[in-house]
């Protein structure tokens, strides 16, 4: 598919992929038993809001759905914005399955409402190592990558690569390392 095909409307760019989020729950056993990592009880979904009335109306419906799912699971939800113009829905729950379910519900509903292109990433925080470990899910590529910050603006690349090698049979891992974005300011 070429750029000319996309611009002329003959081909569409692939939409966001949210169905692979659940792989994180199946990898939880390996994360816990082999790597000593347990959920920190927090996850977040980042998206670029639009000022259109259509988006606001759709997002009000999404908000109600996420609140209902959170109430059913006993999760706590908070909303934040960052300096780059992204909104974050942060979910607090001690159960990893509830965190993944809430992230999937939010992303699925935005996709169903036609705003899937606004989705950036879902971030899941784990603890148990020397530093917190984040597994970031990029919706555009449908893949995870590990992020291990070890300072204000530095990351532990060796640990990230080790996590990649130990989990790539269980998680869809982003193979292009240049796409492993650091989210130092994520509200998780």
What oligomeric assembly is this protein in?
Answer: single chain
Give the class-level CATH name. Alpha Beta
Which fold name corresponds to the CATH topology? Alpha-Beta Plaits
- Spatial sequence of strands, sheet with the most strands: 2-3-1-4-5-6
Q: Strand-residue fraction?
A: 15-25%
> What is the total domain count?
1
> Number of helical runs?
6
* Model regions low in confidence, pLDDT < 50 over at least 5 residues: none
Q: How would the global form be characterised?
A: globular
Mean pLDDT: 86
C-alpha Rg (nearest Å):
17 Å
What can you tell me about this protein's structure?
The protein has one domain: Alpha-Beta Plaits (2-Layer Sandwich). Helix 4 packs antiparallel against helix 5 (96-112). The protein is 35% helix and 22% strand. A hairpin with a 5-residue loop joins strand 2 (76-81) and strand 3 (87-92). The chain contains six helices and six strands, in the order H-H-H-E-H-E-E-H-E-E-E-H. It has helices spanning 3-8, 23-26, 28-33, 53-73, 96-112, 157-167, and strands spanning 38-47, 76-81, 87-92, 119-127, 133-138, 143-147. The model has no long low-confidence stretch (mean pLDDT 86). A six-stranded antiparallel sheet has the order 2-3-1-4-5-6. The protein has 188 residues and is α+β, with helices and mostly antiparallel strands.
């Amino acid at each position: 598919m070429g750029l000319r095909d996309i611009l002329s409307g003959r081909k569409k760019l692939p939409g966001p992929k949210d169905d692979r989020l659940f792989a994180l729950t199946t990898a939880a056993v390996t994360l816990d038993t082999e790597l000593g990592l347990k959920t920190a009880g927090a996850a977040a979904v980042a998206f670029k809001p639009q000022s259109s009335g259509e988006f606001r109306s759709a997002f009000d419906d999404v908000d109600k759905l996420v609140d209902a799912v959170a109430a059913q699971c006993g999760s706590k939800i908070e909303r934040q914005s960052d300096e780059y113009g992204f909104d974050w829905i942060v979910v607090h729950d001690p159960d990893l399955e509830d965190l993944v379910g809430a992230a999937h519900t939010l992303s699925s509903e935005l996709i169903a409402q036609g705003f899937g292109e606004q989705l950036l990433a879902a971030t899941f925080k784990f603890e148990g190592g020397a530093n917190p470990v984040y597994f970031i899910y990029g919706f555009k590529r449908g893949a995870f990558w590990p992020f291990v910050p070890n300072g204000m603006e530095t990351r532990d690349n060796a640990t990230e690569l080790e996590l990649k090698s130990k989990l790539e049979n269980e998680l869809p891992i982003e193979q292009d390392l240049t796409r492993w974005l650091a989210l130092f300011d994520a509200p998780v």
